[in-house]
DNA sequence: TATTGTTATACTCTATAACTATA
DNA sequence: TATAGTTATAGAGTATAACAATA
């Protein structure tokens, strides 16, 4: 199983980094934007823990995203040590575009499965992931992922993801 | 989905490296032993491609495994440039032990799923992996993985994997 | 004292380049 | 000329350590 897992993961990273070309930080930057948009993070440390990366690496990634004008570090009124990561307007536009591109990349990755199988795979993968980390914020993130993929299964009215 | 995939993959690598403690090369060394035992590889380059690692890295990993007396580099009679990777007797014993330990680690990783769900997850994961690489030897490896997990589902007579 | 975030440093890992030997 | 394997080197990526600010 480890072999298949590695193959799929490498395939995902490769496809995701290709799709996220131009975004400083590659597929991990997308996950930062995605998590920050759901305002789950609260702080850089929480965000880093959620994505499984070191807090120092998070600093570098955020530096690049701030430099690109996609996110801002806002002071947390409740804890002046902490910084809240929030998307700029440009960051939200970028994320909407990335959401659609990543959705298509994932569809391509799972192309060998039919629709119910894809649904089952996503569901099982999320269940395993939720178990691997037995943490609350993690489960929330997984639910959100599920929700996004469910939303994407509905008929689309335009080329880009729905945004007011 | 990328998030869940990363979480599960990291969880697997962490568990696998812990289980493979003492084996030089960690979980990747196990995959080398496993592939070599099925004599799929033929050569170091083919093995490296199968596992998705560079041929130079394969040299280092094999150096350690040879140093530990687990594998041998045998000259290929058909192509004197190539080396066939074969397990020593000690390597086969080690692999049998590792197979059992990895099987338990995977069970623990998928503990949140019931038996049919685990079966479905492995099957779907293999199908996706087979699609990601559209290569023949890859499909073979996946079948073998499936076979091993199927065999492991049969009632066990002892604590260790069946070995004559 | 513990934690957040930053910076600088050191380390690990991986890939690149150059080489030998075969084909 | 192209490929298999090895080696040495350089590069990317990551973690460690030290620091300031705050809890």
Total beta strand runs of chain A:
2
Category by helix and strand content of chain A: mainly alpha
* Total of helices of chain A: 7
Low-confidence stretches of chain A: 135-139, 148-164
Any idea what the radius of gyration of chain A is?
16 Å
- Helical content of chain A (DSSP H or I, runs of 4+): 55-70%
Q: Can you summarize the main beta sheet of chain A?
A: 2 strands, antiparallel
Largest interface, Cβ cutoff 8 Å = A-B, 45 and 45 residues
Give the oligomeric state: homodimer
Order of helices and strands of chain A: HHHHEEHHH
Mean pLDDT of chain A: 84
Gap between N and C termini of chain A, in Å? 43 Å
Strand order, sheet with most strands of chain A: 1-2
Shape of chain A: globular
Tell me what portion of residues of chain A adopts beta-strand conformation.
5-15%
Report on this model:
- Two copies of one chain form a homodimer.
- With 164 residues, chain A is mainly alpha-helical.
- Helices cover 66% and strands 9% of the residues of chain A.
- Chain A has seven helices and two strands.
- Chain A has helices at 2-19, 26-37, 44-51, 55-67, 89-109, 115-132, 136-153, and strands at 71-76, 79-87.
- Chain A has a two-stranded antiparallel ribbon.
- In chain A, helix 6 packs antiparallel against helix 7.
- Chain A is globular.
- Chain B binds a DNA duplex (23 and 23 nucleotides) through helix 4 and strand 2.
């Amino acid at each position: 199983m480890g072999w298949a897992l590695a193959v799929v993961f490498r395939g995902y990273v490769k496809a995701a980094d290709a799709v996220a070309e131009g975004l400083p930080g590659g597929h991990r930057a997308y996950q930062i934007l995605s998590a920050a948009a759901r305002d789950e993070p609260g702080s850089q440390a929480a965000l880093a823990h959620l994505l499984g990366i070191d807090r120092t690496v998070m600093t570098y990634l955020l530096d690049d995203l701030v430099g690109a004008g996609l996110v801002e570090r806002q002071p947390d009124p409740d804890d002046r040590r902490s910084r809240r990561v929030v998307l700029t307007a440009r960051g939200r536009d970028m994320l909407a575009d990335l959401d659609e591109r990543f959705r298509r990349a994932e569809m391509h990755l799972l192309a060998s499965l039919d629709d119910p199988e894809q649904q089952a795979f996503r569901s099982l993968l999320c269940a395993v992931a939720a178990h691997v980390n037995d943490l609350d914020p993690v489960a929330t993130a997984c639910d959100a992922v599920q929700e996004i993929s469910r939303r994407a299964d509905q008929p689309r009215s335009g080329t880009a993801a729905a945004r007011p």
